[in-house]
Amino acid sequence: MAVGSRPLVPSSLAPGGLLPGHGSLRTPRSRVGGFVALTKPRIVELLLITTLPTMVLAQDGVPPLRLMVTTLVGGALAAGGANAMNMVIDRDIDRLMPRTQGRPLVTGLVAPREAVIFAIALEVAAFVLLTWQVNLLSAVLALAAMAFYIVVYTIWLKRTSTQNIVIGGAAGAVPVLVGWAAVTGSLAWPPVVLFVAIFLWTPPHFWALAIRYADDYRAANVPMLPAVASPVVVGRRMLGYTVALWACTLVLVPVAGLGWIYTVTAIVLGALFVGGCLGLLREPTARRSMQVFAFSISYVTILFSAMALDVLVRSGW
User: Fold this and answer.
1) pLDDT score for 25
2) What pTM was computed for the model?
3) DSSP secondary structure string, 198-221?
């Protein structure tokens, strides 16, 4: 493919299996499966991967088991409710995109009114659990993330701006704030740096997926950047965000007092992520974009795991 042309991303490439971090493309068959699918469990899983290591960093060791469980359950409920409400609002465009036509609100497995009640119930349960068993700050942060995701991203930006996932993606960075607040009852510079890191990670992560499904977004008239811009523009922006992310992850070393385990991991992972974006810029294909997408998930998982390990080794746990 010539550089500067649109990426070759036909909708027929949509797989029938799982997309890590972005839910299942398999059509749920049971009512229970339909309600579970509304929560987008793969996204919830990815959010929790950032929460627990942040709690370890805040505790400078392993937090109490009850605190970890209640924080993770509360966070999962809050994220699941937000995802369910997102599906209610987006059910019209989900019908137009082959990647999302198996979702329960499109197939009729779950009615919109049922989904709204389900989403509200999850949010109420999350707020009550976090307030009761953790603290008010963590509950307010989780609720604020849900409101931002629904109002700012889903309702306002998703259908109107190429900056939709850039600004709206801030909601996905809030779990690190929730994790820190759950342990300390306050916020500090380390979770702010982690928030910025996830904020910067989100555009290259999601745009890599959107490159492959650009035809879907065009069909639904959603201005996701890869659907409206050339591969060169998308690739350069992905590279820019990834370089900024790399720098941000290294800023965390002095801010959080981290050691060599995290430092070496952040340097190596950042170099690999930048290399992947450079490769995509040279070869803007669906296959290459999905390689970057898959690596971006491994990146955040390994980086946060290394952060937790660094803290545990340093604290002698």
Assistant:
1) 52
2) 0.91
3) HHHHHHHHHHHHHHHTHHHHHHTT
